[in-house]
Amino acid sequence: MTGRLAIVGLGPGSPELTTPLASGTLAAATDLVGYGPYLARVPERPGQQRHPSDNREELARAKQALELAAAGKSVAVVSSGDPGVFAMASAVFEAVETGKPTWRDIDVTVVPGVSAMLAAAARIGAPLGHDFCVISLSDNLKPWDVVMKRLEAAASGDFIIVLYNPASKARPWQLAEALSLIACHRASSTPVIFAHAVSRPDERIDITTLAGADPASADMRTLIIIGSSATKLVTGSKGKRFVYTPRHVELVES
Ligand code: SAH
After folding, report:
1. How many of the other CB atoms lie within 10 Å of CB of 243?
2. What confidence tens digit (pLDDT) does each residue in 142-152 have?
3. Which of 38, 63, 126, 254 sits a CA distance of 20 to 30 A from 114?
4. If you measure from the C-alpha of residue 117 to the centroid of ligand 1, how many angstroms do you get, rounded to a whole number?
5. pTM
6. CA 35, CA 77: separation in Å to the nearest integer?
7. E strand or H helix at 109, and its extent?
8. What secondary structure letter does DSSP report for 50?
9. Are the C-beta atoms of residues 86 and 99 closer than 8 Å to each other?
10. pLDDT for 7-55, tens place per residue?
11. CB within 6 Å of ligand 1 — which residues?
């Protein structure tokens, strides 16, 4: 009998931000597949098999999960945040498309999660209140020229820009180059947010400006939000600051 496969978003870190549907799907699975540190966030259940893997092997992990489901298991593949945002859901569907014909009969579902950008935005106000673009700076899976072309389009279109995967030990220079490009299109006073480990115990959120943004302060667990020309930084009477983008937009002359 063919089993089932659910691709489950765990949210950005805190168990409170894992949806009841995600928790229920994980509890009902016979087998859990995913990157080791993400699996470690799922409560242990007797009788459930865990298949931890390396972070880089997305397609191999997807195939392994489909093999288990084809053998009749009820499989949950875990992702952080939302599984459809730079995560495992695409890898599973790619494996279904290109893999064994019988895999197309497997009941595959996607259980959404709170993507890190939504949790980060909620911490500091409403920076994503108007049109925004989400771009991964990782050039592991696409050429850097493509990243720059998309950044240029997003920046010249005056979109709020969210950067995922801004930096890692193997990719130390990309963020500085990306910020320089965006600075050609935006005022130096544009609000910029560095959100690190959102909803984790070591969460740190820095509000700065395009001129003040320090690329060296980002790592693999950081995401960055760069405001549009309409995004505002407001300081409350007790010094608490928030960032928001209004719901209305004026026509800006360029
Ligand atoms: N599917 C995930 C994104 C995976 S890509 C989601 O929807 O959130 C990995 C990138 O996500 C990291 O490099 C970082 O930019 C961002 N990220 C994931 N969790 C984060 C968190 N708790 N705080 C800040 N950024 C996070």
Report:
1. 22
2. 999 999 999 99
3. 63
4. 7
5. 0.95
6. 9
7. strand 107-111
8. E
9. no
10. 999 999 999 999 999 999 999 999 999 999 999 999 999 999 999 987 7
11. 12-13, 79-82, 85-87, 115-116, 120, 164-166, 195, 197-200, 220-223
